[in-house]
Amino acid sequence: MISTVRSFLDHWLVVGLWAAVAPVCVAVLWRDLQRRNPEIMTLMRAVWLFTVAYSGPFGLWLYWSTGRKQIPRDSVWRRGGRSVAHCYAGCGMGEITGVFVTVGLLSLGNWWVAGVTFALAYVAGFALTIGPLMQEGVGFHQAMIDALASETASITVMEVVAIGVDLLLARNATMADPIFWSSLVVSLSCGLIAAYPVNVLLIRWGIKEGMHDPREMAEGHG
What we know:
Helix 6 (140-170) packs across helix 7. The protein has one domain (2-221). The protein is globular and about 50 Å long. The chain has helices at 2-9, 12-35, 42-66, 76-105, 110-135, 140-170, 178-204, 214-221. It is mainly alpha-helical. It has 8 helices and no strands.
């Protein structure tokens, strides 16, 4: 099974198709944000742009079903979708940076790849939580405590799955190999899927609040 997946992903045609589809998805998202959901705050705009850039059609579907004011009703499941996208935006940035540095530039072994990528994903994920809290007037110490409590489980599951899938598929591939790029896309989306139920549970248990209902933001803007 794994060898079949690797064989499919190890083609430049797959990478080329993704390179064609992902920008279209980002353009659709941007058009919707500008024309139909301008009330969405800047942070969540950035979250959705990163999410769709990482996961293309899947990320766009997540936005369409959880992040727009046109959703029929909100629920813990939709809040979980917005919450995991928020986590994904930061972690994905850290993971991509880690893979590019350790594999693409330094050609390090798998343990280095896993360690550096984990560290950068945590830094980026926590920064995306701590920064907005401090902008709201929360002190750094308390913001760090809140981020550790609300994001650690989500980031850990997301990165264990994403990095594990990437190493399983890409193995010792370099930036000159198509599977380096295609496995990165697949692994990121796998991490998002794995962390989604974690975010739902954290919201149910009151550990995370989840991101705001986009319909309420629209009403407040009006």
